Amino acid sequence: MSDASSSHPLRPLLILILILGASALLVLGAIAVGYVRIAAILPPPDELVDRANTFKTTTIYDRESNVIYEVFPADAGRRTLVPLADISPHLINATLAVEDPNFYRHPGVDPVGIARAIYYILRQDAVQPGGSSIVQQLVKLTYLSSERTLERKIKEAVLAIEINRRYPKDTILEIYLNHIFYGNLAYGIETAAQTYFGKPASDLTLAEASLLAGIPQRPGDYDPYTHWNAVRNRQADVLRLMVEHGFITPAEAHRAWMAFADQAPEDVLAQPKANFRYPHFVLMVRQELEATYGPEVVTMGGLRVYTTLDPRLQEAAEQAVREGIQNLAKRQARAGNAALVALDPNAGEVLALVGSADYNNEAIDGQVNMAVVPRQTGSVIKPLDYLATFEMPEDYWTPATIIMDERTEFPDGPGRPPYVPRNYDGKFHGPVSVRSALANSYNIPAVKALQHAGIPALKDLAQRLGISTLTREDYGLSLALGSGEVSLLEMTNAFAAFANGGRRLEPHLILRVETQDGDLLADASQPYQVQAIEPAHAFLITSILSDGAARRPAFGRASRWLELPDRPVAAKTGTTNDVRDGWTIGYTPQIVAGVWVGNTDNAPMKGVSGVSSAAPIWRAFMMAAHEDLPVQQFQRPSDVVQIEICAETGQLATPDCETTRLEYFKSNQLPPEPEG
Predict the structure, then answer these.
(1) pLDDT of 22 over the 70 cut
(2) Is the domain defined by 46-306 classed in CATH 1.10.3810.10?
(3) DSSP state of 370
(4) Phi, psi angles (nearest 5°) of residue 247
(5) Contacts of range 353-357, beta carbons closer than 8 Å, 24 or more positions apart
(6) pLDDT tens-digit readout, 360-415
(7) Which of the four pLDDT bands, split at 50, 70 and 90, describes residue 76?
(8) pLDDT grade for 110, boundaries at 50, 70 and 90
């Protein structure tokens, strides 16, 4: 037989199989060697597990380097360790469903979980479970490199597999549930159960457990005290996942969901007690840190965080709010709460922030930070109404433009009666200038201003000034009088742009962040800023809001609450329907401050307005804040000119005009000449 005939037909295939097998062995060998090498240079799993019970305290300072808070104080009462047997099975199952449903089946790293996370992300599903297993998350909480690299992920996976190999699953789960952060200073499920529901973890119901299990992914966003709707939506996702993975039945999920239906958070949650200074400010700083660096780094990373808070101004703000609420109580004004925000308009730094009159007062829902909760603005929105008319490319208005303040019916949509606004004093004032209309806060001219400029123009202007909440498509002309909702912080920051020549800066609470070794992680010394409005237009608004003589016809003696002795200051008040909100926001070139007064539950006040409720608090703070500051004037831009006009017509003055006055104009938006 020939050589060709003696060759077996399967021989090439066998050779290929042998080559592929050898290659696979070489690859597996390389992976094994790499695994051993990585494992050899990492901390032993035993050490990492021990580190789960240790902390490197993150310290938060004010701007003068005084300690105002430690993320995990020496007092360990904010974390109570409990065995797995003392944790409600509902909480265990809810945590597994949302974090790691294959926990008891995978070797520490879950390929199925990673694939599932990618699938949910591609679907853009409301709930997107992470690809990291509970074991990997435990590694993240203890292996404190903040890098986000492939090498870090490989090390994390190796340690997870090693921990999974050396420790029983129940032990790993017990450490995890005793260690994770549930927000509001609660580390571990026992403290979380006591914080939010006033009961031990062993007694948590399915409704309570499913609510808590959703918090650790984003504790700042899922804070039940301030983001109840978001937490409830997250609870629905957790219950759905529990059904999907067979932990509960659909009927059980429905009963758990309905347990909190139609209930306000204060009817469900235990009310927290703050044992540290400046609670709302500190909690906002914490939430920002967690969003940037992750809860595990903030919890154990030993960060040094230097904030913008000025301790003297903070004390002055707290005193002004406290005494203001006490005075309103004496007047039986039914005003239970107040908030105050103070900014450096030239840097965007939050110098002082009081979120409520008393954080620990359950009767006023003091734990709710009213500095960031959107409320109807009332007349403090009116400077934006007129500013929008100043910005019009054609048919623009100026401070001298004359408007008829008279009964006016505004169309309010098909099939709806016309909108007929009334002035606060119930009177009509005939022809008034923009300066007079804004200074005296007349309502009808403000609505005409918005009608002239258009609602889209006002919404665009608000967005440029950093207001994020005026986004609805169904606003009517009542938006001119403050029917839209804006937070005190954002509204105050919008006024800051008037104070610094039209430039908007993002309000920030953190100056810099350092590692425990002093390495710089973040620095806000050069904050981002944008020219939101023209300097000339900003000055025109300031010139009106600082004109005490112009506002006295409406405010009379109350105008004194909006003035500071021997110092120029611009201010605007606001009062909403049924006196549910009182506002005052005002500024000098150095400081802008905003005050809100009302009730957290939106109950109406009695017998007060923005000028009589919020303005005294605002003035008391501004007086204290400027004690040691030099007097500064508002700087007039080079393209603003002062021209003599006829007071009755708003046109250039002529010899025939009986009454004239000086008015400011942008140099390319001059008053018209008289006809004829």
Answers:
(1) no
(2) yes
(3) T
(4) -80, -30
(5) 353/278, 353/280, 353/281, 353/284, 353/309, 353/314, 353/317, 353/489, 353/509, 354/280, 354/314, 354/317, 354/318, 354/321, 355/279, 355/280, 355/281, 356/280, 356/600, 357/321, 357/322, 357/325
(6) 898 999 999 999 999 999 999 999 999 999 999 999 999 999 999 999 999 887 77
(7) very low
(8) confident
CA distance 497 to 491: 10
Let me know the angle formed at the C-alpha of 100 by 95 and 102, rounded to the nearest 5 degrees: 125
In whole angstroms, give the CA distance from residue 384 to residue 480: 9
The CA distance from 357 to 324, in Å, is 9
What pLDDT is attached to residue 314? 98
Q: How far apart are the first and last CA of the chain?
A: 124
Alpha helices in 411-442 (DSSP H): 434-439
Sole residue written with tokens 């606060």: 424
Q: Which numeric CATH code is attached to 315-625?
A: 3.40.710.10
C-beta separation of 190 from 78 below 8 A? no
Nearest to 167 by CA among 95, 108, 253, 96: 108
- Residue 115 tokens, joined: 């694939």
Q: Are 672 and 649 in contact (CB under 8 A)?
A: no
**Mean pLDDT of all residues in the chain?**
88
Question: In this structure, what DSSP letter does residue 63 have?
Answer: T
Question: Can you spell out the DSSP letters for 469-482?
Answer: S---S---GGGGGT
The vertex-496 CA angle with 65 and 585, nearest 5°, equals 100
Q: How far is CA 188 from the centre of its chain?
A: 25
Phi, psi of 485 (to 5 degrees): -105, 130
Tell me which residue of 286, 285, 278, 283 sits closest to 352, measured CA to CA. 278
pTM of the predicted model over 0.90? no
> Which amino acid, one-letter code, is at 49?
V
Task: List, for residues 549-565, the tens digit of each pLDDT value.
Answer: 999 999 998 899 999 99
* Domain layout of the chain by residue ranges: 46-306, 315-625, 638-676
